[in-house]
Amino acid sequence: xxxxxxxxxxxxxxxxxxxxxxxxxxxxxxxxxxxxxxxxxxxxxxxxxxxxxxxxxxxxxxxxxxxxxxxxxxxxxxxxxxxxxxxxxxxxxxxxxxxxxxxxxxxxxxxxxxxxxxxxxxxxxxxxxxxxxxxxxxxxxxxxxxxxxxxxxxxxxxxxxxxxxxxxxxxxxxxxxxxxxxxxxxxxxxxxxxxxxxxxxxxxxxxxxxxxxxxxxxxxxxxxxxxxxxxxxxxxxxxxxxxxxxx
Length: 247
Description:
A hairpin with a 2-residue loop joins β2 (11-16) and β3. The chain is 52% helix and 8% strand. It contains 10 helices and 6 strands, in the order βββββαβααααααααα.
């Protein structure tokens, strides 16, 4: 949506029957489908409230990734159930960025091996699965047992967290990097770098388009970080004790 002039002074959260709500002055925040904006954890509510409080003269909706993810979870515009969300995330294994390798140029092939092999090895050990890699245009042959293991693992997350997981997977084009990030095995910066390895290699050789590369990099980091934080906050069960929006 286009930017909108900020129409509120104060942002706060309150607990209602369905969870935690966001208050813009005396107005209750609503979703695009006019549902009451209610989130399952106090920590997530505080994070969303901070997004709204951080807006200046105009509301830049495209910077509010947590709010957008909450709206998606509440409105569920694609009307998908839990298993459909899980299958959509696991499907990325078939085209996972870190599983597709090149043979030429040798420098890039070596870089992929050095940078991607360790995270694939971590995932295989962490989930007790076989993943592998391939230089074929068809990609690696992922065993059915590997896919089912990831399906079972993702089933342990709630619907809200799964929305965040699929969001991160979509940003990084990789289930493996996403799980490494969510499991705190790699940082946001590392996950983004690994997801853009070929592009970074080309930039090192030929240079980059001024400002465009840095903008894309920062935007991807912001989205990956927001999605990961969303997953963790949706899995948060303890009450967060705080003083709202302290300076």
